[in-house]
UniProtKB/TrEMBL annotation:
One of its GO terms (molecular function) is channel activity. Its main location: membrane. This is Aquaporin. GO terms for cellular component: membrane. It holds the Pfam family MIP. It is found in: Membrane. The chain crosses the membrane at residues 40-60. It comes from Tunturiibacter psychrotolerans.
Amino acid sequence: MKPTLSRRIVAEFTGTLLLLAAVVGSGIMGEKLAAGNVALALLANTIATGAALVAIILAFGPISGAHLNPAVTLADAWQVGSRGARPGLTSSLRSQGHSPG
């Protein structure tokens, strides 16, 4: 059963907000834990953001494809609805301006 468009949009907005919170939170965490060491702050920020991104993709991927950009989900739904295209890589690439063979 395919999720409805409204469910996909809510999943995208939620995923985007969680990603934003993870990026901001990991930046603050890295800065506080690094005690002035910029390299350590960047490493902590990168690891925490990457882990959060993996968790978000695994949680929302089956619902919306985990584009983490509601505009891409809307464009994908519009293309599938108006042209009968199958969702996936081709639709995603077309929504970004590419024209795969």
